[in-house]
Design brief:
This protein is an alpha+beta fold. Strands 1, 2, 3, 4, 5, 6, 14, 15 and 16 form a nine-stranded mixed beta sheet that branches. Strands 7, 9, 10, 12 and 13 form a five-stranded antiparallel beta sheet that branches. It has a two-stranded antiparallel sheet with strand order 8-11. 50% of the residues are buried. Bound molecules: glyoxylic acid and manganese (II) ion (2 copies). Glyoxylic acid binds next to loops.
């Protein structure tokens, strides 16, 4: 069977996406399915039912990754597709969910066509990709790839002290399988770009060449709480002011260090009162760069700045790593397969690096890996207004189908 004749069913894919989007839907038109929340459980229940309805072998592993397997003609490693169905707190409908329903649609298309691949094919929804609730991000795929033990992952705490393992049990998704139980021949992930590049270049798809390096730091700044009306400025030890200085310093580094990105997305001030100089601030820094060396330089500069600020202003600063992953190039042969598939389907495609982290970054530790991106309208993501067109969704899913079928039969 020639893979070029196969097409996914666009409306069916979109109706699955709509069904998943309805779970945890927000009034703003986005989704809130934080990892291991009740909404995540409902999304998982929906997914498991879809996979079972397709007659796939459905397995859950000890970190809650959900796997649907289509048996191939031969025993051996599987061609795995996947992504995640958890979202950030103010997420959209496409980030992660699209990659999972596209993988489901690929398997549904093969089943409908009565096609059995040479190798096993599978779709996985990985646990806690976003890192919005538990750290690090991409936790489920990190555990799957052997980068973190199940016990360590189960011990992770969210910001309110909830324990990951307890939450996983509570929602009924601590499965019996050992993470990584299904050996991978290759991993392919379809995802929205989440940035403005493809749209601004006139549309078309992206063949992702790799993922930039990422470093998430949590800083706890401690000063001296005091009266905002009576404490002369020179007497204050204000961690709120220190947090602002650190944020500004990191931001300014992005002007002088090539391709450097910096974000302070969390600032928690204690006590949070208009007339109290705060006692502590917990802040996060998300630093990214395509170059591991430049990222290391940036991190060192931030740490030096903090040491100086601490000595000068009497603020105690402690650091905790929330996530740290090196720059990850994908597999040339598979990137080329994505391009070949797009070209065969008449879809323009360009090579690009991913600014966002993805489960593919973890999977590339254990198998050849590649991704296909579709344009994000307005470059928006991690935002309820996140949007991609039906046409681009179908184009991306057809490339996923074409490429996965090729790899599964090669
Ligand atoms: C994952 O969404 C990331 O933060 O890159
Ligand atoms: Mn994602
Ligand atoms: Mn995301």
């Amino acid at each position: 069977m020639m893979s070029s004749n196969l097409r996914i069913d666009g409306p069916r894919l979109l109706s699955r996406l709509a069904a998943l989007s309805a779970i945890g839907a927000t009034p703003e038109g986005g989704c809130r399915r934080l990892a291991l929340s009740d909404e995540d459980r409902q999304g998982r229940d929906w997914l498991v039912a879809e996979l079972e309805a397709l007659g796939l072998s459905v397995r859950i592993d000890a970190i809650g990754n959900i796997i649907g397997i289509l048996k191939g003609r031969e025993d051996g490693p599987a061609v795995i597709m996947g992504s995640h169905i958890d979202t950030v707190g103010t997420g959209g409908r496409f980030d992660g969910a699209l990659g999972v329903v596209a993988g489901v649609e690929v398997l549904a298309t093969l089943r409908d066509a009565g096609l059995t691949p040479r190798r096993d094919m599978a779709v996985i929804a990985f646990t806690n990709e976003e890192g919005a609730r538990f750290h690090p991000d991409m936790l489920g795929s990190y555990v799957w790839a052997g980068g973190m033990s199940v016990a360590d992952a189960h011990a992770e705490l969210d910001a309110d002290g909830a324990v990951l393992g307890t939450e996983l049990k509570r929602i009924g998704y601590e499965g019996l399988e050992e993470p990584g139980f299904l050996p991978a021949h290759a991993y392919l992930e379809m995802h929205i770009e989440q940035g403005p590049v493809l749209e601004s270049e006139g549309g078309g798809l992206g063949a992702v060449t790799g993922i930039q390096a990422i470093c998430w730091l949590e800083l706890t700044l401690t000063g001296k709480p005091s009266h905002a009306g009576t404490t002369p400025m020179a007497y204050r030890k204000d961690p709120g002011l220190a947090a602002a200085r650190i944020n500004l310093f990191a931001n300014e580094l992005t002007r002088t260090t090539q391709d450097q990105l910096a974000n302070c997305g969390v600032i928690r001030v204690q006590p949070s009162n208009v007339n109290v100089v705060p006692e502590t601030v917990i802040m996060t820094l998300d630093l990214r760069n395509p170059s591991d060396d430049l990222l290391a330089e940036t991190e060192a500069a931030v740490r030096n700045f903090c040491a100086e600020l601490s000595a000068r202003d009497g603020i105690t600063i402690s650091f905790r790593d929330l996530a740290r992953f090196p720059a990850t190039p994908f597999t040339e042969e598979l990137i080329a397969t994505i391009e070949t598939s797009a070209t065969e389907l008449g879809q323009p495609i360009r090579r690009m690096i991913s600014g966002a982290g993805h489960d593919a970054q973890m999977m590339s530790r254990i198998c050849p890996t590649a991704m296909v991106f579709i344009p994000s309208i307005g470059g928006l993501s991690h935002n309820p207004a996140e949007f991609s067109t039906n046409q681009d969704i179908a184009a991306g899913a057809n490339v996923l189908l074409n490429a996965a079928w090729r790899v599964a039969n090669a």
